[in-house]
Amino acid sequence: MKKRDTKRSNLPKNHPRYESLKYRHEIIEGMHNLVVAEAGLIAHGRGECFDYILGEKTNEVAEKAIKAAVAALLLAEKPVISVNGNTAALVPRELVKLSKVVNALLEINLFYKKKGRVKAIKKVLEKAGATDIRGTSKKEMVEIEGLESNRRFCDSIIDADLIMVPLEDGDRTEALKKIDKKVITVDLNPVSRTSIWADITIVDNIIRAIPKMILIAEELKEFTQEQLTQIVAEFNNKKNIQDALELIKNYIEQQKKDAFKILNNH
Ligand code: PTJ
Description:
Shape: globular
Order of helices and strands: HHHEHHEHEEEEHEHEHHH
Helix content: 40-55%
Largest sheet: 6 strands, parallel
Bound molecules: ligand PTJ
Number of helices: 11
Structural class: alpha/beta
Strand order of the largest sheet: 3-2-1-6-7-8
Number of strands: 8
Distance between the termini: 45 Å
């Protein structure tokens, strides 16, 4: 039987889509190591599609949300960053760094239950430098009311005032809002249920958003509580989601024009 090609170094660095191939590779490897759920590959593909129609860059709309999210994390008393398979495979070191800069706990919380997954993700986070990882012991867990999925089991999330839930599947943000939690998400789909329900929606790729959040956090750490409160108060999530949709519309219009120029010259 042919051996699986596991080396990221086998990807041609001069390939025009090297970055995208690199992250696909991380997701596929993550699936082989139990970190990523099989459905995580499909979720990644959906993310790639939205990223494409956003121009594959962090735009000014995302930057506004990132600033508000970091300010909210710095203001929170008990912030928690929820970690799933895709985020652990794509940005493990960055998640750990962000949790340290904003003083948030990391909690593993999975939609797809499978023996060995929590252990595999814990290992990845520990390798990335995490020392205090929540959500690893079923005995410590409580259930969030009104939630049917495996995400209902949580540890420090139940006591948190603010939870960051990147790449979510919908139901949980709604359930968290019903128990008065503040929610931040990173989701390339501006109209997913999570995006609509969250208090702060960062419409950006997690691979760009988390490093940017770390940079902004280093800067905002020096701000006073009043200054941070003002940043959060001035942010309007509804307007930001509308602006993200407007950017997508404009990008597609431009792509249409560019494609027609080529097609008309065929
Ligand atoms: O590890 P688990 O078991 O907790 O499962 C994780 C996944 C992601 C499989 C699970 O939460 C899921 O099925 O999510 P959905 O319903 O596919 O939603 C994920 C959302 O994240 C979608 O709106 C995607 O567009 C978006 N997304 C995917 N990749 C990225 C992304 N957003 C930001 N950055 C990405 N790289």
